[in-house]
Amino acid sequence: QTIDLDGFVAQIIDLTEQYNDSHPINYESPAVSVAVCVDENRLKQVILNLIDNAMKYSESGQTINLRVDQQGENAVLAVRDRGIGIPLSQQTRIFERFYRVDEARSSFATGGTGLGLSIVKTLVEGMGGTITVSSQLGEGTTFTVSFPIVSESVDRATQRQVATRKWQ
Ligand code: ATP
Ligand code: MG
């Protein structure tokens, strides 16, 4: 499906507002919409997982920042928290299945299986995107998800071609 990433993220934030009253969410969207070709259900899972982590690993009351913007050929979603952060040495490992950073930190969070991010990475890459993390211990963490921008007019042209071919 082709969807506007910025509008979709806004919808997901509305959805989380129904059960989240611990962390305010701040959302910055681009002036011009960015269209991407993704599966809505999978993308929803990705965004909800990242928001869930951001909340779990930061004090309640701390604002979570989401931003969508265009960077060259890509539409980029950044999810930033001001939480406990992830040590540099572990930043590549968090995408592994069942990997959780230091159980001692679980006093902070309510536990988990360590599967969230491995699923997120699989889903993002399955849709042709990439995910990266940048984090500073004690300062916070940003996950950045990126998808190629598709132009809707190109899509329509392709559809027309397909339709034309049918009758040849
Ligand atoms: P699950 O998502 O399966 O309920 P989980 O949150 O522990 O469990 P992941 O989402 O895969 O598992 O995250 C792996 C680990 O990465 C977490 O245990 C946590 O230590 C660290 N982590 C993930 N997101 C953040 C974040 N925003 N801030 C700090 N640490 C994080
Ligand atoms: Mg998680």
Describe the structure in your own words:
The chain has 168 residues and is α+β, with helices and mostly antiparallel strands. It has a 5-stranded mixed sheet with strand order 2-4-5-7-6, with helices on one face. Strands 1-3 form a two-stranded antiparallel sheet. Helix content is 33%, strand content 25%. It is built from 4 helices and 7 strands; from the N terminus they run βαββαββαββα. It is found in: Membrane.
Key structural traits:
4 helices, disordered C terminus, binds magnesium ion, binds adenosine-5'-triphosphate, 168 residues, alpha+beta, two-stranded antiparallel ribbon, histidine kinase, 5-stranded mixed β-sheet
